[in-house]
Each structure stands twice: as C-alpha cells, then as structure tokens.
Design brief:
The protein is of the alpha+beta class. It has 3 domains: about 280 residues, Metallo-dependent phosphatases (Purple Acid Phosphatase, chain A, domain 2, 4-Layer Sandwich), CATH 3.60.21; about 90 residues; about 220 residues, no CATH class. It is about 25% helix and about 30% strand. Strands 24, 25, 27, 29, 30, 32, 33 and 34 form an 8-stranded antiparallel β-sheet that branches. A 6-stranded mixed β-sheet has the order 4-3-1-13-14-17, covered by helices on one side. Strands 7-8-9-10-12-11 form a 6-stranded mixed β-sheet. The protein starts with 6 loop residues before the first helix and ends with a strand.
Amino acid sequence: MKRLPNIRLMASLLFALTALSLHAQKKIYVLSDLHVMAPELLVSDGDAWQKYLADDRKMVDKSQPVFDALSEKILAEQPDLVLITGDLTKDGEVLSHQYVSSKLKSWQAAGIATLVIPGNHDFGTSFSRVYDGASSTAAEVLDEDGYKELYEGMGYFDHSSVSQKGFTDLSYWQEPLEGLIVVGLDSHTGSISDQDVAEACRRIRWARHDGYEALVMMHHGLIPHFYKEENYMDDALVTNHEAIKEQLLAAGAHIVLTGHFHTSDIARDYNTDLSQSIVDISTGSPISYPCDYRILTYDPESKDITVATESVTELEGIDDFAAYAKERSLASNKQTAERYITQMVNEMAPSYAPYLAMFLDPWCNALAKAFILHAEGNEGDADASEKSAIREALALPIQLMPEAGYMLTSLLEDQTPYDPEGQDPRCNVTDDRNLTLEHGYMTIGMGTPSTDELLRRAPQVPSAATLYYGEENLVVPEGVTVYTVKLGTDGDLKTVEQSELYLEDEVIPAGTAVIVQGVINPYDYCSDESVSFEDLLAQRRDYAIPSSEKCTFRTTTESGAEDAANVLRGSDTPATTTGPDAAAYKYYKLCWNKDTNGDETLGFYFQEAGGAAFTSGAHKAYLAVPADSAADVYHFDDLTGIHTVSATPAQSDGIYTLSGVRMTGRKLPKGLYIVRGKKTVIQ
C-alpha cells in the first residue's frame, strides 16, 4: 500500500516557517558620508587634483571602489533595510548623484528597502569641480527637486506624498519595517526648521502611542561626542541641538542616527530627571579610517535594537587597506589639529603665538593620535601608555589652555557629556561599537521613576467618544488622544484604521470629525438609548463620559493638520447621515455591543439595520463606508485601535489580529486575536 505524506505535519512545518519569517529579526545597514565621486569628474590626474587630495581629510580617490565594494556586500547579504545619513556624494555633483542613485536602485530592485537623507556636501560646494591636469572647472550640481527625483522611493515620492506631509525641505517619515518608523530630518544647511522638528515629534508621539519603535536620522550631530566638539568644528552639531534634543526626548525618541564627523561614536544624554535617555549613534565614513559602517538588528516582537559596527578592511589593489587608511587619517588629522591649535593659541594665549612653531609639530602629532583613538571608538579601553604619552606631549598647551585639556580628557576617556567639575550625573561612557537598546523609555541606573510616574505609565482601559465642530479650531486637552480614521483594504472588505493623530496642545481643524480616546474608568452608559436588532444578534448601548470625567476643549485661531483621508463625518446640529458623494454608503455609530457570550465591546455599529442612514446627534461624529465593501462591525481593541469584523460566513470563520489583519493559514504566535468575531487569547 502506497504511503501518503503526512499532510498535517507538512502543514504544521509550513505554518511554523511562516511564523518564523514574520517575526524574524531584521537587519538594517547604516551608512554615512560616502562622498562618492563619479569617475567622469577626474578627466586626468594632475596638480589640481593632487592639491585637493592633500588638503582634504577624506580618501575621496577611493570613494568609488569602496562604495562599489559595499554595494556588492549589501546585494550579497540582502539586509531588510539600508539607511544613509547624508553626504552621499563628494560635493553634490549631478554625475556623482547619478552614480550613487543607480546603485541604490539596484538594491531596491533586489527587494532591499533604502532610505536616504542629504548632508552638507549633497548640493554643491566650492569644490564641486571637474579636474583635468593642472586646472579644474565647475561641475553641474544637483538641486533639491533633482534630489527628490533621483532618490524617488527612498523617502521621497511626489510633492503631495503623505510621507512628507507637514514637513518642509527634505524631511519625511516612513514605516519601512513592521513596528518601526524612520523619521528623516534634513539638516544639510546645518539647521533643521522648527516646523520639521515639530512634525517629527508629532509623528514620533504617534508611533510611540501605537507601540512602535522610532528611529530618527539626520546628517549633523545632535549630542556632543566630546567636550566642546562644536568649538573644534563649528558645524559639527546641528544648530539649536540642545533644544531639538529636548523636544525629541519629550516626544519619545531614544535613537538618533547621525554622521558628518566621520567617527563611529555613540553619545548618550538624558532628560532632566534622568529617567529617560537618548543616544546619538554617529556612523563613520567608509573613506575615513577606520572606514566604518553599522549593522543594526531590529526585533519586530520586542522592538529592541542591537548596534554592531563593521569596517571596510580590504580593497582591491591595496595590500593592507586598514593600515593604509590609518596612515592617511593620521596625516589629515595632523593638518586639522594644526589649524585648531593655531586658532586656539591666537585667541586664548596670543602672547605665546610667536613661539608656536617650536612646539606645533609634536602637539599636532599627539592630537592626531588622540583623534585616531576617538575614531576607533571605546577610547576608555585603549592602551593606557599610549594615552599617557599623548597627555605628556600636550602638557604645555593643556596648562596654558585648560579648555583643551578638558576636551582631551573627554576624548581619551570617551566621556559624554563631559563635566570638568565632575558634578554632572549625566556624564557617562557608552560602548561605541556594540550596544543593545531596549524598546521603551531607557533607564540609566541613576534614578528610579516615582510611584506616580510608574502608575501613569501602567496600562489602563481606554474610553472613547466622538466629536465634531464645524466652525471652531479646538485644542486637545491633557489626558486624551484624538484621531481621525481612514479606510484600508483586506481582501474585498474595507478596514478602518487610525489616520491623523492629535495629541495634547495640538489643534483639531474646524470641520474635522474625530474620535476622542482617554483614560476613564469605570465606564458609564446611557441605558435609555439601548437598541437591538436581528442583524447582529446583540444588545447595544450608547457610551457616555461620566460628567466628573468630561474634558474641555478650548478654541483657538491657530490651524491644525487636516486629514483628507478621514472617513468620519459630523454635524453641528442633529442631522441625517450622508456620504461624501452620491455612492451608496453604510453608516455606523460609536457605541457598545453585547454579543451572545455577554462580552461588551466598544466599536462602530449600525444604528439602523443594514447600515441605513440615521439621525446623528449635534457635535457627534459617525462613520461612512462604501456599501459594496463595508464590514458589519468595526470593533475597538482595548488598547490600540480598531479591527474589522464581518458577519458574512467567509469572514466570520477567519482569524484576525486586533488591527484587522486576517491570519488564516498561519501558525499563530501567543497573543489576542479575533476568532469568529470574538476576542480569543492564544497561549
């Protein structure tokens, strides 16, 4: 007798593999300061090109082969996402951008999501030149519109793209991986507009509210990586970096990816009560020693992120590329140190300026070595005798200029933010090369949240109501979250999901119908408005906020973010529900439902059988969904949002996540699901 394969076992294995792929850790490459120079920009080698190389701290002559090698590695390893934090090109030349863009598009074609943000070298500098022997001529440089076009689909779409809604310049937000949003902030001018910072914080608060992790990426540094870094290089940090850091922290951002300084260093800073921290993960340049790039591992289930650092150590045609890069970096660092020391002496100890030549060479050699240690990261663990020799060589300038000594100590011990008095409890040492960042707010072992703070963060049962004012802009009060909803698609059904989010002190534009969700317990019911009908086999009661818990919205002349996708509608007076056009719609009212098991669930239910029009109350909102694709019920999950339940046999037999995603045909992880229209815990 022929033995048939074990279909059940095969199916179980298939389900298990599918579940593993859904929750597998995601690999994210982070690159910065590629400074790629298109080969066409060097017509012929000569004095002009060699002079440029001698004055520059980067190995621009190696930029193209290094980038090509990285591109091959990315295509071979197939990460889930690549992030590039600016300075994609040497100096913004169109030819260089075209070269970079072509490689990035090959990554996209291979299924690798890619996001970019511009740096200060991406729109032209005085060095945007075509080199030909002893002379050079101006090269054509890219403008912002050209940038969006070349990097389409890498954070930029068209001018009406949702990803750039609310932002100016070249900032945006994206959700490239499940449970993770990336906010790209444009700092290529050295600053970020107030509007972009505000919109970024808005998007981050939204993400954190929904349990997402958020990454911010920008080109310039956000946190000083050593004492007085901004004095050493005046544009090292973004303008108003301290204020931006506070705003991002308050919004719930804990991880910022930066570049610009060409060193792989991680600096950590904190909020005022030391209960939360934010890290600035600066990624070095692959053409500046030690030629680093980062690999992040993101866990979609825990939302934890692990940081690892790798280096380009081999390049065709060079026997020991790491040693070669280090030697070139020492030489360029020495030039930078010479400029820095000369400037400091002239400003702080001018009487010693005539004698500077006697000491400049050993001082610059020592400072160049200090910056090599800084570039390598984890300076505190470096060889003690080497650091002692550096301090000894710089003893005199440290004595003359204490500020230089503070900077050196901060560099050699990897302390940020460094405090010369030793009184700042924020001063810390963070692993620069390998680090695990847990999802949620980051405690640092210096302070414990108060009982009130822990209670405030504890999960609580939400309540909800609807609101509509046609003529008034309303300010969101403390303690509630306000949002619109939009339609999604799940097969033949329309789903309903959260759209625009309005948090405390933000403005709801006049004429915007919204859901108001807050923490109100116990619930109260209007028992005199209970309605039952056969379609749902349920008893439904309207929900009302207890008078003691009602919140007050104040009016304002300021405008807020409008949402064209919003499918909530309302009226200032009692009125019959209508759709936005002449098509047939089904209409829903926010209320409670008691199912056949006696469980009560908040959601959008038919007020009239079959979803027929009904009279909606004054200043209340209702839901209108196209009749040909409407579900029978749109339930609220207790903590996160809305899911769809249809009474049709095809849908009622399915299994759904609380966000409305059908899970039929998968081995389900532990959690809460909708099974045959009822919430079910799967252990």
